[in-house]
Amino acid sequence: MIAKYRTIPMEILIYEAITRRLPDHHPRKPEFLSKLNRWKAGYKGEKEVDYYLSLFPDDDLTIFQYLRLPHHNGHFQIDTLIVSAWFIAVIESKNLAGTIELDPELDQLLQNSEGVEKAYSNPILQAEIQSSHLAKLLLKHQLPLPPIEVFVTISNPQTIIKNPAHNKEVTHRLCRAARIPFKISTLKAKQNKEKLTKKDIKKVTRLLLKLHEPFIPDPKSLDNPQDLITGVQCPHCSVFRMERIHGTWLCKNCGKTSRDAHKAAVKDYFLLYGPVLTNIQLRKFLHINSEDTVTRILHSMDLLITGTTKNRTYSPPKDFFS
Questions:
Q1: 172-184: average pLDDT
Q2: Domains of the chain, with CATH numbers?
Q3: What is the number of helices (H) and of strands (E) in the chain?
Q4: Tens digit of each residue's pLDDT (9 = 90 or more) over 230-239
Q5: FRET partner for 111 with CA separation of 20 to 30 A, picked from 52, 160, 189, 261?
């Protein structure tokens, strides 16, 4: 059973909006395209685990596809969490190209791709830290604590994985994404006593869903460029040259029309400038002079409304970007 489905990270949506509205020859466009590609690669790695687990459906498993849970004054994130009657499994996903070698003694993962060597933190240690935080959270809420196993998956099938020291921990915990269902099945087969009742699992599920806090990044913290193109993008030719004429958007580049091309632009505004929008701000962004026209647009999108007529603001509702 999947208790929580994975959604596209907000960072991907933000970087897509930035790269979409940056002029092609802007000096910072390669920088933001690189950030976007890194986030997409990570998300793809997590989706690979989802895919392979879906090929082996198991009613005895409760799966959470990404959790962000409170810890002291901050949060910790788990890419994939599996809760069963016998154990809990924390899965950290990596999507790295080239050749990788994990050295648990020095707590580093070395990657060599196209002749460039990079060092990353030990993902097994990372998963162990997450499992420690999770254990404290469950105990804090007086829930039983089964054994917690951690795994790190590599989603790119062309990645060469090396373990020259034949470290047993690396062999056990690091695997291809396609191997993870078999790892879970092996864990189940080794258990002879249930640690969590069905009632316990329901309590754990309710708690984790209640405490999950999706990350909403502040666009300002992402160092957004100042030269973004405003206006409404044509869904046919992708040029930002649409004008509002009698309730319809007309593209001055290709001549085609759209009734709702503004919806993507409103989403872009929230992604680029934050979750609060006023009528005058949207008029400027959409290149519309009429206050009444923008009011109709805003009300048609079922946004959250705060304040009176003069100082009214609009915000995206839950799942607005799904």
A1: 95
A2: 2-211 (no CATH), 230-315 (1.10.10)
A3: 9, 15
A4: 999 999 999 9
A5: 52
